[in-house]
Amino acid sequence: MYEFLTGTVVEITPSYIVLENQGVGYLVYCANPFRYEENTETKIFVYQAVRENSITLYGFKTSSEKKLFLKLLDVSGIGPKSALAILANDDNRGLVFAIDNDDDKYLTKFPGIGKKTAKQIVLDLKGKLSDLDSESFAGQETLDLSLNVDSKYLNESIEALLALGYTKTEVKKVAKKLQDFDGKSTDDFLRQGLRLIMK
């Protein structure tokens, strides 16, 4: 089992990145691939899922994110795609707070999470995430909104939201608001889009 990989990011898509290490390209599914930059040396914490007909790598910016992902997978009704969609929201501290305070309404805002699954998340994880709360999560910093960007970033962020499982209707509403957003990267647009969806 892998704990982490270090290599160069050679490709970024809405749902995964390709990390090259000593001539081998690892396809790694991520909650927000646009957090990474192409042609940069990166350390990614990984979880390897082995199934009957596939071996899949899931990647995380920090060990805290990986631990939270694994705890989410332990919940009945939560698969890797749903867990990644939950982690794509930058407010992981808010997620821990919602679980510890029985806020299932907050949890149902994530794609594929109905009321029953939200209640199950609270039931299974309430009071069990305190060890993560003290650690740093990726992407908690304030966005720098001072630079205008090309619409390429908007388009990539929309593709990423769809890849996470949000509906076209949800994404369309957010896309209209994002047209006036001043970000400097696809990551900025995606984070803002997720914030708007979670409101």
UniProtKB/TrEMBL annotation:
Keyword list, A-Z: ATP-binding, Cytoplasm, DNA damage, DNA recombination, DNA repair, DNA-binding, Helicase, Hydrolase, Nucleotide-binding
Pfam family, one: HHH_5
GO biological process: DNA recombination; DNA repair
Predominant localisation class: cytoplasm
One GO MF term attached to the UniProt entry: four-way junction helicase activity
Segments forming domain Helix-hairpin-helix DNA-binding motif class: 70-89, 105-124
Domain III: region residues: 149-199
Origin superkingdom: Bacteria
Entry similarity comment: Belongs to the RuvA family.
Alphabetical list of HAMAP family matching this protein: DNA_HJ_migration_RuvA
The protein's name: Holliday junction branch migration complex subunit RuvA
Species the sequence originates in: Ligilactobacillus hayakitensis DSM 18933 = JCM 14209
